[in-house]
Amino acid sequence: MAKNDLKTKVNDASVEKFLNAVKDEETRSDCYEILKMMKQVTKEEPKMWGPSIVGFGSYHYKGKGGREGDWMLTGFSPRKQNLTLYLMGGFDESKDLLKKLGKYKTSVGCLYIKKLEDVDKKVLKELVTASVKRMKKVTK
Prior knowledge:
Elements: E1 10-11, H1 15-20, H2 25-42, E2 46-49, E3 53-56, E4 59-62, E5 68-71, E6 74-78, E7 83-87, H3 95-101, E8 105-106, E9 110-113, H4 121-138
Antiparallel strand pairs: 1-2, 2-3, 3-6, 4-5, 6-7, 7-9, 8-9
Helix pairs in contact: 2-4, 3-4
């Protein structure tokens, strides 16, 4: 498979313009709060990944099947159903934190929340921090 054949890539689109286009006021406000938190955790400037993901930092990966490319350390996207947070490395090591988080759902590397008021923001920041630290370790 070709190197970096992933469709979602970092680009020069404006993060601020993207977030300002979020129609729901509460969701837009939540996005700016998540933006600020992820910026603090990663010490990175946000970049657009594809048309709808705000990502922070990056790492190069090589998959078992030979696929390789670049991906963000962490990021988020305001989707129709949920705010989706991309927390790489899974949630196995974060079970205790998840118990204290509040209302959420997960898939392999995604945390889904309806709105920030549904979760404990301090715990959310700890989850993001743990995910970023984990990814920095495995990608060195």
